Amino acid sequence: MSALLEIRDLRCSLGGREVLRGVSLEAGEGETVVLLGRSGSGKTTILKAVLGLVPISGGEILFEGRPMSEWPLIEVRRRMGYVVQDSGLFPHWTVERNIGLPAVLAGRAPEAVVERTGELLEMVGLDPREFRGRYPSQLSGGQKQRVAIARALAADPPLLLLDEPFAALDPITRFDLQRQFLGLRRRLGKAALFVTHDIREALMMATRIALLANGALDVIASPAEFLEARTAEARAFLASLEETWRLDERPRL
To answer: In a 3-state reduction of DSSP, which class is residue 57?
Structure first.
């Protein structure tokens, strides 16, 4: 598997504090690398560095084999789909217009944008006839995130960047969207960086888990390998998982 995205010895300082300390990882086609870690461990900063939203103080990021410094910023961002926790939809735009924006910016013809929007709504489980003309305020949290995922896919980018996209949802909706994302990954073969602090979500979503601690890479492993990881930070996450299982097994009164 060739690497679509390569991060080499990445360093980043913000406000005089070193946020990333020599992080190296890569993501290939069809692979979801989950960035797992506590709050402040550097997960979201990696996504922002890939998007060129924060300056880096050392190391290198390569996309499609080409250093980021050689990419026009607008062009590289159009080749990445970005999904955030609160959907990030424009409230005064319809669902159709929100989803179609990346395709419009990519220069697609209006009729092609309309067709693409309908395809994507169906792909994320929303009836185009019902949802095209709705506004974000008329959607549930789960529907907003479905629309956000559809928008991220609109220009058919090879790389998806997802920053805790399901964290604010209720458990049933969250599980449904997790399964849907896995189905889309199998169908579309996109590479993805997926940020979470939830060990269960990491084990479910990842082809590989990159555990961060204090801005450094602590462990990178497949989900099965991660269950056997012996670092203190990995064991802390796994202990929280085991404790949750024990609570789930309490007798019901």
So the answer is: coil
Q: Per the structure block, which two tokens stand in for 130?
A: 């019902």
Residues across the chain? 253
What is the CB neighbour count within 10 angstroms for residue 71? Answer: 17
The token pair that represents 120 in the structure block: 């994507």
| Half-sphere exposure in the Cβ direction for 20 (13 Å, CA) | 28
What is the per-residue DSSP string for 110-169? HHHHHHHHHHHHHHTT--HHHHTT--GGGS-HHHHHHHHHHHHHTT--SEEEEESTTTTS
Averaged pLDDT, 216-229? 96
**DSSP strand pairing (191-196 vs 159-163):** parallel
Question: Which pLDDT tens digit goes with each residue over 115-135?
Answer: 999 999 999 999 999 999 999
The CATH number given to 1-79+158-223 is 3.40.50.300
